[in-house]
User: What shape does this take?
Amino acid sequence: MEYVISVLLSGISVGGQYALIAIGYTLVYGILRLINFAHGDVFMVAGLMGIYLTSSLPIGISLPLVILLTVALGFTIERAAYKPLRDAPRMSVMISAIGVSYLLQNTATYVTGGQPMTYPTIPFLSDTVNVAGTQTKWVVIITPFLVLALVVALTILIDRTKIGMAMRAVSKDFETSRLMGIRINGVISVTFVIGSALAAIGSILFFTNYPAITPTAGAMPGLKAFVAAVFGGIGSIPGAVLGAFLIGICETIIKGLPSAWDVSVFSDAFTFALLIVILVFKPQGLFGEAATDKV
Amino acid sequence: MKKDRNFLPSLIGIILLLLFVVLLENISALIPGLPQIFQPTSPLFTVLKKAAVYSLVAVSMNLLNGFTGLFSLGQAGFMLLGAYTYAILTVPSAQKEQVYYLFGGCAFDSSIVDIFGNVFGTSGVGGAVSMVLGCLIAIVAAGCVAGFFAYLIGIPVLRLKSDYLAIATLGFAEILRAIFQWQKLGPVTNGANMIKGFPTFSDFNITDGAGNVLVRLSTFVPFLISSICIMLIVLLIHSSYGRAFKSIRDDEIAAEAMGISLFKHKMMSFVISSFFAGVGGALFAMYVANAQAKAFTSVMTYEILLIVVIGGIGSVSGSVLATFLYVACSEWWLRFLDSELYIGGFKVPLLRNGFRMVVFSVVIMVIVLFFSQGIMGNRELDILSLIKRKAAAKPAEKKEERK
Amino acid sequence: MANALHLENITMQFGGVVSVNNLTLDVPEGKIIALIGPNGAGKTTAFNCITGVYQPTNGLIEFMGKPMVRNHPTGKDAKNYKGENADRYVKDPVLAPTPDRITGLGIARTFQNIRLWKSMTVFENVLTAKHQRASQNVFSATFRGNLAEENRMREETMDLLTEQGLDAYKDELAVSLPYGLQRRLEIARALATKPSLLLLDEPAAGMNPQETAELADFVKEIREKYDLTVFLIEHHMDLVMNISDYIYVIDFGSEIAQGRPEEVQSNKRVIEAYLGVTEEEEE
Assistant: This one.
């Protein structure tokens, strides 16, 4: 029983962290129809910044600074690598995203010297707590609530505010919105800003849980978050969050299976198997809209 | 025949190139006292071997991404299949016990080379014949296994739209990587450990009884196999099927309306591309002298994709040129960026381990953003050219000078 | 005379929107038949049903007397179905061939918004359309096992281009041609698939009166030469009245009139639909 609870708890918490990354994917895809391959690496860079900043600044300053710098990074990437390709074929933009991902990973290797870095312990978040007889960290408990709060805030932003309305319009019809005088570039920037900020928060939670950061540490969580976004129906925020929780839980269950079966190598592969199954049977995901091509 | 008029000159060009490679790698033995660069240990030959292998993979990816318009990111997965197939089939039975020591030997206890060895003998000319035949068959088998898996995975994923196809094939490659590291499959795949001991390029050198090298062929072999494969791909591209692939890339709906079955032709392109990626994987295993699942990551696929982009999407010669440039830069010319350098008493800033790859990625980003046509396209420094890219099309693969 | 094409109770419904409603029509062999109607009347949708781009929600399409496409609403579609005759095809098996198979049967089409292959030359555009009629497989093609066939395909392509007056442009990129010639090239490309029924989707769109007149002669000419049946959608009334043997008029997805050109021309409902008593946006 205690074992089940601990698996579930860590599953929900990992899922919540994936959810924060997944929202970034789903927002960007909804608007630009771009799989932002660099998003996972932005998440990794946020983790590294956390390490470097907390070592020289107090937590109270460094963590907000991490979020701010990650936002600046996301904004810069969009302006430098995606905006010039606005009218290019989709494949070019995707290649550009892969290029950015490559650049971020290589830069991280250069800066860190390729060694795994250890994430600092953050007071309170790293403290242990006893839930139903299971020892766990506070971060595990807090993550799902924080995720829900952020999702609610984001939903309100998208449903109630002017910029949210613009975002919905652009994701519905890019060209028409442009003709209707919506400042497309502004909307896209806001999307990247939100996505990056959530990725930064996700990185603080995730790396408090799994403190080793390598230059490729962002790739796998990034891909999983993307799968979560596809699963939920790309473009849909609740869908992405639901998908992320599901993937997080399944993954920890697989990792927690008896070691004699030796299936833990499949915890990553499972996500992709799930992806292929969804794409084949329900390509629009749980809450997505089917698209039709005009002939 | 317009296209085939180029055939004979290209063939002669390739044969001359191959002869040149043989000469190059043996020249140090013929004329003593040449500079280090011509010695067999020179980075020149590492670069040539690796580039020969990678160019095949790059061209195979270009067949799919550039000529058929299918954005697939599964190349590393198919290389993995090829590498393992080759390795498992050719590790000599005498070595199997030792390689698979954790699993008490391999499920396939013999090897193709040994089987031929029983026929032609194991030493002298007979030994050479059995090794060459065995390796060739294993390489073809490597391609076939990759092609077969491509067929299986193609049935569900080829119906997907471009970006979903990319992520599904990427995921497929990751699944394969996990399966090949699974300890339960250890008797076949050696689990997470590497397989080694199989014939590599240097085993093709002709030696005398005492093991002294008489004629070096270790660079010639990858060149030979790659050129044959690339030649086949070029012939395919210039055939009726190649035109059908291009029509799908240009406009799927029109292609289908003109009677070209989308599924059949996409599948064909996918399987053929994967076949050659599998062959490339086998060659890669020979190049690094081992087969290990964790080498075939998505980063490898990205690397190959970026090579294709640098060379020009839809240009075979571009891909080949770009591969040689890319490999030469990363393995040789830009190596100095990775080591600290003092000029006089002054330490050049920034130079230390990893800097090479940073410079590299910046160059790649510049190419992606500002020279999206790559080497073989028009070189105008103009964002507008991106828009026109498809329209301003390029029957680019003029003469494949470096097939 | 036998029908080349026969549509029966074809209904195409997208979600709650009925694009084509219970359309029944015949295209007799060797004739030129036109389908006309205001913008958004469902003409192109009907074409897309015939060529397999869409699967009709309900109805039957016969080609050369044999059932080619057949469907009846199932599942969610059955619940929302607004058309008629849904029960009529329930017992028969569903037929839903892909567009390439339909082309293989002998139906070729052009597109309203020209869809030529952009990276290819004029010559390659037509040559590629011959691919499906070629007998070589991927191996014999790669190893040049059947050069005779390849050469024959090239000759036929050249003949076709010469005939259409496009031979001078053969090595130019298809998309660099003037508009009128692009339309002509699309027709040449469709002919390369060796059809017995040619579907033309607004072939005169964007053409000036002189080009339109030439097109009319051209369509008649190829009909004779290739022994074709022609079914076209058109907006230019001059063209339609000039070349059609019979005309079907649809509006809001449903047929409102049919008859010979002179009958249709004087039909009150047609005039209403076209003059825009109910609809303003007609050009």
